[in-house]
Amino acid sequence: GEKSWIYSFDPETKQQSAQWTPVGGTPPPNKLRRERSVAKQMVAVFVAKTGHLATVPLVQQRTVTGNWYANVCLPQASPKDSSSGILLHHDNAPAHKVAEFLAGMRIQELGHPPFSRDLAPCDFFVFPQIKRRMRGIRYGSPGAAVEAFIQHVEKVPASDWSSCFSKWFKRMKICIESAGEYFEKM
């Protein structure tokens, strides 16, 4: 599971707002620098090779706690039939309460090197791809932005999820071969 802020408005990147103009033609229009909205909501996103499992918004609090993660997020993200157990990849060490919940649910954790921030599927695939689609659109509230995020995630084709997880295993192999050192631009 990975956490990220979802904003009511996130401006387009410079690259997204670029326009082609004919050589010697009129100059491109001036662009106003728009700021990211202060209205935002934290979500925890859980995905599998088969697709989106859950997106859980952080409601009525501003801080992620072990209690919220163990009692709200993980039950929503856990498959109903986990008799064979599942693997969970975190990008940081979970709180004691979370570790107890995971052990009780037969969920095995995968380790994560401390300085390899773009190793998790949400960091290199889900968040960049979905947030890129949402840039430049104003949502009426953080909740509406989260709903749009969920709709976009649920539209990702099964082949893209499979490809994402294949890339994840390649990234992990490179990370193991480099003894956990951080590397950019994979």
Automatic annotation (TrEMBL):
Region (Disordered) residue spans: 1-32
Task: List the coiled-coil residues.
Answer: none
Matching InterPro entries: RNaseH_sf, Transposase-MT_Hybrid
State the Gene Ontology terms under molecular function. nucleic acid binding
Entry superkingdom:
Eukaryota
PANTHER family named in the record: MARINER MOS1 TRANSPOSASE-LIKE PROTEIN
Instruction: Write the protein's name.
Output: Transposase
